[in-house]
Amino acid sequence: MTVMVAAHLPEPTSVISPYKVSHYGVRTTRIPVLRDWYMTVLGLAVVFESDDLCLLTFDNEHHRLSLLHADAAHVPQTETNGIEHGALTYASLSDLVSTYERLKELDIKPYSCVNHGPTTSIYYSDPDGNHVELLVENFPNVEALKAWFATGEHERHPHGVPFDPDKLAAKFHSGVPVTELLKQGSTD
Predict the structure, then answer these.
(1) CA distances from 126 to 29, 83, 167 (A)
(2) pLDDT at residue 1 in the model
């Protein structure tokens, strides 16, 4: 199977694309439970809250997450059609490792850890079963990413390579260079 780089990194077109992701919304019957979980995991602060809506943010954006009350009959069940996960990028591997360790101390454990090639990702499930991907970019720029795709390496592991986050953290703290840790299979 051949994967074209353009399928992953489109060339500029006349279509005007958004310049950022503003927020995502989650329907739930348990706003307080999800509010507390997202505040703990992502360090969000409540901007507005009522009985049927809670808006949270971690920066100067009006909100990054909206929790909307829904009747149980209208809440999507896991393993059905819908958004599979929301992904949030950290500025550095240090930030991602620190977040993993902080959440582990709070007994919030990931359900999956995968080096996808372009990203190193740690996946969590919120109390309603919605998936959240916390990641760091593995390449310093688009040119380096395109060069990696051109090697065909992505074809060998199109869904990525699982990793043990404790081994990643230990190697990080022992001084293994970040450029090595961001390579697939570096924590074996």
Answers:
(1) 13, 14, 24
(2) 39
List 49's β-bridge partners, or say none: 54
Specify the pLDDT at position 171.
Answer: 97
Q: Where are the domains of the chain?
A: 23-70, 85-183
pLDDT at position 4, please? 44
Q: How far apart are CA 106 and CA 145, in angstroms?
A: 34
Which residues of the chain fall below pLDDT 70?
1-13, 16-19, 72-84
* Rounded distance between C-alpha atoms, residue 177 and residue 138, angstroms: 13
Considering the four listed CATH numbers 2.30.30, 3.90.1200, 3.30.1490, 3.10.180, the one that applies to the domain covering 85-183 is 3.10.180
The residues, any chain, with a CB within 8 Å of residue 6's CB and separated by 6 or more, are none
Question: Which amino acid appears at position 21 of this protein?
Answer: V
Give the C-alpha separation, 31 to 132, whole Å.
17
- Can you name the residues that pair with 28 across neighbouring β-strands? 69
Here the tokens at position 69 are: 């009350």
| CATH fold of 23-70 | 3.30.720
